[in-house]
Design goal:
Layout: H1 4-11, H2 19-27, H3 37-50, H4 53-62, H5 69-73, H6 78-86, H7 94-111, H8 124-134, H9 139-161
Helix pairs in contact: 1-2, 2-3, 3-9, 4-9
């Protein structure tokens, strides 16, 4: 069986900068012998959903802005860097970057956390369309949408780390 430290080291970043989720999943006995995508994702999501609203908000706030200042400064986690690059967000024109910055700022001001979307399989136009659609949501709707996206990002990350079954 994997040790707590090994588990947290390996899966503590699946939910962006939020190792408490992996720590609690291990502590609460959710982790068995077989570390598969489905089992680990189910365990981590259960902990995420059971977390207080303030803790879940902290997980949302741990995510970087899309094509934002952390990306420009080269300070994204490796997972976030690869995800954003895969969607072409590292190759925006000046006008596109300005639009992302404008939307990022308006979104954070309205909701108190960054816009979060699982970018795998999307391009910059898909992401902008989702951004412009979702910024019209209520805070409650957007908190739910963002948490769903965080869970999807975790699944995508785990899929690259573990066997399916």
């Amino acid at each position: 069986m994997i040790s707590r430290d090994e588990f947290v080291s390996r899966f503590g970043g699946v939910f962006e900068h939020s190792p408490f989720i992996a720590e609690r999943a291990y502590h609460d006995g959710f982790i068995g012998e077989a570390l598969t995508v489905d089992r680990v994702h189910t365990a981590l999501v259960a902990i995420f959903r059971a977390a207080s609203e303030e803790e879940r908000l902290g997980v949302l706030r741990a995510h970087p802005d899309l094509a934002g200042r952390l990306a420009i400064a080269g300070e994204l986690t490796e997972d976030s860097r690869q995800e954003q690059a895969g969607a072409g967000l590292d190759r925006l024109s000046a006008a596109e970057h300005a639009r992302f910055t404008e939307l990022n700022n308006a979104y954070v001001e309205k909701f108190g956390f960054p816009f979060i979307i699982a970018v795998k399989g999307l391009d910059k136009n898909d992401i902008l369309a989702a951004f412009e659609r979702r910024i019209k949501n209520s805070r409650e709707e957007e908190f739910a949408a963002a948490t769903t996206q965080v869970e999807k990002i975790a699944l995508l990350r785990l899929t690259s780390m573990l066997p399916e079954k």
